[in-house]
């Protein structure tokens, strides 16, 4: 009897349980400070015999990290991480801003990471730690914050496994944009001077060539004309 | 001597050939002879850019339902609001079940409701977090816009909106550039109850400074601890900068339909979309109000006070877009360049309004989520806000509306005028009672009745009519299972095409008039004339060359 009463109470509580405490739903850990999706400490990818080793990284995110670059607004403190195949990466993600930032990796194997994604999201100042185990293949993974215009304005990095398979575009300090901005060119006196000198040098070459060619012709002309 | 005659002859020829060449010159346009060119064949359906009027993404969202104890009214439109969102907006994220929260895009601190201060059965301490989202922004990674949001077929102006704090992906999925349905224009309608202790935190996720000014909402000039509370940033110096946050607080005593908007570089920022409706509902017992109405439109959980008088409630937010201003954020990625282009090169006093949006969409997209769906003998509350630069003249076909409130303040009964054109100055709000009683005054009977700005530019998309803020009052017998008005088959198909609004198609080439009012073809080139012209000009050049050379030889 007592047991049934408890059960009913438990069921009633479950049905009205507000979503406050951290809860794990389909690989998603949520609370009022942030969200971690598809953290993985022990599920080894098919192509790995075992975890090759632990790599601990600490990532800081915020607008202050963008100051060492020109023309962006948000950034991580590092733009690239290199790890050996089959590593377990333990990421400590620190949000230095008073807004939401994400540490999101794409194109991971879908059978471990649904939608191929690993996400750490922090709703304001604070930090969280989570892990992933990367496959063995040589590959460069996109790491970014997907809040609109955060990646576009600089919060973009890459994770290279086994040296990676190249650089992704528009990573601050590493690779140029595909769709780059245009800026004013500083046409100062020396630039104009260089242009003028080059122009006259080019013209002089032409005149010199002309003289060499024309001289014998003129001689013949003068002979026959008179 | 012979040389001299030849020269004279060629000079004469040159003088004669110049007018001849002028007369023979081929033109871009030429007059037709007896037979004007035939009508061009119609465009193929692929090049029309046709899309389905209703994508029917979530038909299960339309029915009336109860989620976590929150009653959500039926909404028959093509794209109704997500009922799980509504449940979370009514109860607060802290009071809904995890499955409900997981069916929204809200972050877990987006909206919390606690403390029944007056002991009347509803929470009175409301904490709201707003982010600033750029729609249709530029990407350094290629020639595309992200996250993309179409205001009408084929048109994606750059926009800034306030948005409830969300979590996870901003786009529909990795590989898509489309914004999820939460991120859209206009800035969401915010509803609180009279006497609520409201804390609104602006978390500036954008790359420019912003603020929130609560226009018409009862709020103290400073916060309790002496902080800025009016959103007046004096051009921007005192604003909330990127990565920072600021909490505004208020305990509104006066009810009504008010506004909130950014007050940094206000001329530009409001027109970019940073304005929304702010509604203070009357205090009633057990009055759980729907704190957000995403995309405006139908209020699926109206307040207790509204339900006492009305069968339904709709929020109508009107805004306009200057296509040149909207393009600035798509022309550069560097925030410093955008700052210069927008603040110091662009001149707002020379701006034009090109697109006119009702609840973030222009016709024909207004048909998807901005219909007013009603039966006869209903009383519907419309809250109307004009967030455009220009004044507007709202007109309903088939109805005469009663204006009950101006700028949130109720008019005495005797002063509540009945009109068929309601004028709204910029930033003005009116509350309207739409009475669907067929008495020849309030309503002329059932049907599919238009309502639109009668300043006719507002009913166009960059000058192409029909467009802009046109929408419809549709009686229930006239709405189909996809939420589209029942007119003749494919009535709106030609407007759900990007080519129509790109001005690529004649507007009346239908049925019997395909040939009579279609696109006129072009003239075939007149080869004889082209040859004659070519020969004449060639001869001219040769003669000039001959003359020059003969003089030179002599010298």
3D structure, described in words:
The complex is a heterodimer of chains A (226) and B (555). Helix content of chain A is 23%, strand content 29%. By secondary structure, chain A is of the alpha+beta class. Chain A has a domain at 24-161: Immunoglobulin-like (Sandwich). An eight-stranded mixed beta sheet of chain A has the order 1-2-3-9-8-11-12-6, with no helix packed on it. In chain A, strands 5-4-7-10 form a four-stranded mixed beta sheet, with no helix packed on it. In chain A, strand 1 (23-25) and strand 2 form a beta hairpin. The longest helix of chain A has 37 residues, at 189-225. Chain A is elongated. Among the domains of chain B are: 2-37 and 522-554; 80-295, Immunoglobulin-like. In chain B, 20% of the residues lie in helices and 24% in strands. In chain B, a hairpin with a 6-residue loop joins strand 5 and strand 6 (145-146). In chain B, helix 1 (2-24) packs antiparallel against helix 11 (527-554). The longest helix of chain B has 28 residues, at 527-554. Classes of the chains: A alpha+beta (226), B alpha+beta (555). At the A-B interface, strand 2 of A face helix 4, strand 4, strand 5 and helix 8 of B.
How would you concisely characterize the structure shown here?
Chain A is α+β, with helices and mostly antiparallel strands.
Q: At the fourth CATH level, what is the homologous superfamily of the domain at 80-295 in chain B?
A: Cupredoxins -  blue copper proteins
Strand order, largest beta sheet of chain A: 1-2-3-9-8-11-12-6
- Biggest sheet statistics of chain B: 8 strands, mixed
Named at the architecture level, the CATH assignment of the domain at 80-295 in chain B is Sandwich
CATH C-level label of the domain at 24-161 in chain A: Mainly Beta
Radius of gyration of chain A: 31 Å
Look at the structure and give the mean pLDDT of chain B: 94
Identify the overall geometry of chain A.
elongated
Quick one: biggest sheet of chain A?
A: 8 strands, mixed
Q: Please report the first level of CATH classification, the CATH class of the domain at 80-295 in chain B.
A: Mainly Beta
